[in-house]
Amino acid sequence: MSEQPFDQPRLAINRVYTRQGDTGDTGLVGGQRVHKDSLRIEAYGTVDELNSVLGLARSTTGQLAVSQPRLAILAAILLRVQHELFNLGSILATLPEDVHPRQPRVTDREIAQLESEMDAMNEDLPPLRSFVLPGGSRLDAELHLGRTICRRAERITISLSRTESVPPEAIRYLNRLSDALFIWSRWAGHISGSPETLWEPNQSASGQTNK
Predict the structure, then answer these.
(1) How far apart are the C-alpha atoms of 104 and 81, rounded to whole Å?
(2) Which residues lie across from 27 on neighbouring strands?
(3) Which residue stretches of 38-196 are H helix?
(4) Distance between CA atoms of 51 and 45, rounded to whole angstroms?
(5) Given this model, what pLDDT does residue 21 score?
(6) pLDDT tens column, 19-78
(7) End-to-end CA distance of the chain
(8) Could you state, in order of their start, the residue ranges of all structural domains in the chain?
(9) CA distances to 71, 146, 181 from 134, in Å
(10) Bridge partner residues of 25 (DSSP)
(11) What kind of architecture, by CATH, is found in domain 35-124+134-194?
(12) What confidence tens digit (pLDDT) does each residue in 78-113 have?
């Protein structure tokens, strides 16, 4: 078996609170103290928020997979992506000069995997004739919520990249993941038979005034 590419975590979390952040700063992987509202903290904090939402979606997917076994594929993908998001958070929480060769990160391999999964699932789906409104099912809404948080994480990471060094794979991964979440939401609805609600501009109050 080939050597694992990343080091395992070296953590000993014996007490959650430390009081070290009470003055509004926090520590990066290299030990530097930075303000909690800095762009770097915003970036990996939003990735952490995304991870939490995907955990919710994975739980919902697992429950649905009892009666729709094909959804187990998506549950496994979401679990892998949660690990990848922690890897992404690791690299975002580290200044470039402190990055170790075996430090967890996202790479072109993770991006290619997302693209492969999107292509495979998209083959099952009918073409779209309009944008999709979230909410065809609970899972659909959770995946769309993840998609929008992922887009926000991407925007913040791009802002960070204008002032500090950010691995280009980090931005590409978030961009691809947001697309994947859209396709996964459609695919999950297709597999489970949930309705897909399309955007119809004239369903607005203005469009119905003459009815």
Answers:
(1) 13
(2) 33
(3) 39-64, 72-92, 108-122, 138-161, 168-192
(4) 10
(5) 60
(6) 656 567 765 555 567 667 789 899 999 999 999 999 999 999 999 999 999 999 999 999
(7) 68
(8) 35-124+134-194
(9) 19, 11, 12
(10) 35
(11) Up-down Bundle (1.20)
(12) 999 999 999 999 899 887 778 788 888 899 999 999
